[in-house]
Amino acid sequence: MRELDRRTIEDFGIPSIVLMENAGRRVSDVAMEMLKARTGSRAAIFCGTGNNGGDGFVAARYLARQGIVAEVYITGESSRVKDDPLINLNILRKMGVVVKEISDGREVTGDLIIDSMLGIGVKGEVKEPVRSVIADLNKRNIPVLSVDVPSGLDADTGKILGEAVKAKTTVTMQFPKKGFYVSEGPERAGEILVVDIGILE
Predict the structure, then answer these.
(1) Which of 18, 22, 69, 113 has the maximal Cβ count within 10 Å?
(2) What's the mean pLDDT in 108-132?
(3) Per-residue pLDDT averaged across 143-168, rounded?
(4) Which strands form 144-147's sheet, in the order they lie side by side?
(5) In percent, how much of the chain has pLDDT > 70?
(6) Contact 137, 105 (CB under 8 A)
(7) Domains present along the chain, CATH in parentheses
(8) Quick one: pLDDT band at residue 19, thresholds 50, 70, 90?
(9) Ramachandran bin of 127, using left for φ above 0, alpha for ψ from -120 to 50, beta for the remaining angles
(10) Where are the alpha helices (DSSP H) in 9-144?
């Protein structure tokens, strides 16, 4: 997937922020279905500081525009957000969407949790504060929608990297990941929805 991303951006000339926009919008579409499009529903969007988090920022924008109370929780220092994710984070701030840094998920409530903390590039065991956030979210009786891959699940092997989100639904970009179907993958990924974000082969 990383190579297909690179080719789409570098060889075909589709800007990476366009792919992020497409991904976030697709996630918001699924989120609206899970929320039954009820205006005033609450969605807690947990975002990492990288591109997976950027998809979450875009999804939060679309949800807020459709009357959902979207609250964004950054699992790390917001000063580490750069490039395309930062553009989308700044848009949220200008819109007045609640954005907080968070080190655990104990106080979070809502009708839906969106997990866009870690993507397919994670290597090694999940580090703090994300590890504690995942553990707390897994104790909540709130459905979780994961972006591309449940945070903490190895997309290739299906192994849990210390701690992994248990999603009700995973919206994955362009192609399903092998790890969804082996090892602990099936019980962590939940329902798998593959969406087209415009990646060219």
Answers:
(1) 113
(2) 93
(3) 97
(4) 98-101, 69-74, 42-47, 112-116, 144-147, 169-173, 191-195
(5) 100
(6) yes
(7) 2-36+48-195 (3.40.50.10260)
(8) very high
(9) beta
(10) 16-34, 51-65, 83-95, 130-139
